[in-house]
Every structure is written in structure tokens, then in C-alpha cells.
Amino acid sequence: MDWTRGQTIGHGSTAAVSVAKSRFSDEVFAVKSVELSQSQLLQKEQKILSQLSSSYVVSYKGYDVTKENDKLMFNLMMEYMPDGTLSDEIRKQGGRINEPLIGYYTKQILKGLEYLHSGGIAHCDIKGQNILLGKTGAKIADFGCARWIDPAERDGGAEPIGGTPMFMAPEVARGEEQGCPADIWGLGCTIIEMVTGGSPWTNVTNAASLLYKIAFSGQSPEIPKFLSLQARDFLSKCLRRDPKERWIAKQLLKHTFLEEFNLNSNSNQNFVTSSPTSILDQDIWNSVEESETTILQTGSSPLQRVRELCSNSGELNWRWNDDERWITIRSSNR
């Protein structure tokens, strides 16, 4: 496929995401790119994404290898979502999304998680920045930390622990296990992000104390008291510290909190209203919660894991402008 690369719309630890356009059909899509020599994780993401097909997961468009500026680049092509991330939407809504819209997005995310989990895949990095929005609502994206739950599907060796510290489940922070229950915990933290515009964990001053608190304090994120009884009960089912006690996606989809939300609607505009800002512990939210996704190997000590998790920071920006410069890319023959 010949295609044209547009503006960079996102950055990860190694890969960059650009908007792109086919030279033959003018189809617009997103391309995640990294140097071929450093593309092991992106190739794993491609392998997982290529096997998925769901209305609630960003769709796979293909991949290729190109030569740009004398460098071989591995490119993963996927659906372009024009309305940015859920975190963008939270900011647009003044820092807090109203409860009906929270329920609408939550049901869509859960539909995506039910699909993934039923197929034996855990996403391992559920957060607002990895939920993309378009005309049909929310879709799960960024499978850089995803893993197959069935050991037979693995390529061999221990799967690395990955994710974003602020959204990690206790068992993940301790380096014990990372599976489907961790996605449900991440969903709970993402709901709190939608509710407050801020951190699911307050009164933490640095990433090391944050990881220790998640792993060993015995506490769960505080559930805002101004939510409805149904919403508070739903969150309590997501944020149980024991992963065996957390509800699974299929159970949560039947919860009374989500009963009224119809996913067949092509518009969520009836749910959108302006809400007052409610930002909690803004400094730690900027420096820790939205920290870049981190990958670390299992087997390291708890202290080493905490240090590694504290090392990166960054933020995705999925917006782009029509008047940005485009670069023509021609794929190498495969």
C-alpha cells in the first residue's frame, strides 16, 4: 500500500503515532511506527490486534515496513478515531463527566473487555488515554501491554509486567500476576478519572509511595460519595483488592448501573452537559497518573519494580490539523 504520513498525533516510550492517508482511496487511518530494530513490542501488538474484530476495539488495518531517512520503520496501521481520547473528553467537559455519559462510556468499554477476556486476552493498561472516541462512542486501543492468558499462546518465557502505575491493580504492583481482573480494576480507576477529572489515588507525593500504597496498604481508591447508589456499588465491585473477588465483565454488564444505556445509539450528545471542574491533587496527577506506560520484567524485586515504574512520564495527544504537511510513504515489497 502507498500511503501518506501526516502529523504526529501521539507518542509512546518508543513508538510514535501519526495520522495517515491512502494515496489511492483517500482513506484516513492511524499509523504507529518504530524503527524495525526496536519493534519487538509493536510486532507483538500487531499480532494481537490482527486477531481482533469488535465494535468496541479499534480496528486493525494492516502493517508494513518502510524506509524513511535511511531507517527501516515497522508500521502498524489501525482505525483513526477523530474525537481523541477519553482523557481529552474529560478535559473538554471541564474536568468532570456527568454520570449518564460515564455509564454510556463504561458500558462500551466493558463490552470491549468482555470480548477480549472471552478470547483469552488481557489488555493490561486500561485508562482514559487508551480509550479512543469516535462517532459510535468509545473503543479500546493501545495493545502494547496486552497478553494472552493461556500459557500455550505465549512465545515462551515469562510475560513482562506492564501498565501505568496509577491504574495498576494491587496484585500487578506487587508483581504477582496480571490478567483479566487487573483490567476490571483499571476500569474502576478510569471511572474515577471520569468522575473527578483527577487521580484515583490522593495524598501521594511521588511514584514510589504511590506504588507502595497500591501494593501493600490494604486500601482501595475512594469512591466519590456524590455518585448514585448504583454507581457506587458498581465501582465497589471493580475495586476489590482481591482479584478473585472482583466481578468479571459479563457480571458487570448486568449491573443495574448500566441497565438504561443503549449502545445502539449513534450519538451520545444527550448525555453531554457542562460540569464543574473537580481536580484533586493536580501536581501528582500531572506527574504520576498520566505517566507513560511502563514495561518491566517479572522476577525483579519489589523495590526494583517501583524504581522502574517511576522512571518515565509522557502524554498522548491524538489531535491533528488538516493543514499539516504530509509525507508520501512507499512500502517495501514483502
UniProtKB/TrEMBL annotation:
Localization annotation: Nucleus
Chief localization: nucleus
One BP term from GO: response to osmotic stress
InterPro entries reported in the protein's UniProt record: Kinase-like_dom_sf, Plant_MAPKKK, Prot_kinase_dom, Protein_kinase_ATP_BS, Ser/Thr_kinase_AS
GO CC list: nucleus
Binding site for ATP: K32
Keywords recorded for this protein, A-Z: Abscisic acid signaling pathway, ATP-binding, Kinase, Nucleotide-binding, Nucleus, Phosphoprotein, Serine/threonine-protein kinase, Transferase
Single GO term (MF): protein kinase binding
EC number of this enzyme: 2.7.11.25
Reaction catalysis annotation: L-seryl-[protein] + ATP = O-phospho-L-seryl-[protein] + ADP + H(+); L-threonyl-[protein] + ATP = O-phospho-L-threonyl-[protein] + ADP + H(+)
Boundaries of every Protein kinase domain copy: 3-258
Family recorded in the similarity comment: Belongs to the protein kinase superfamily.
Record PANTHER family: CCR4-NOT TRANSCRIPTIONAL COMPLEX SUBUNIT CAF120-RELATED, MITOGEN-ACTIVATED PROTEIN KINASE KINASE KINASE A-LIKE
Protein's name according to its UniProt entry: mitogen-activated protein kinase kinase kinase
Species of origin: Solanum tuberosum (Potato)
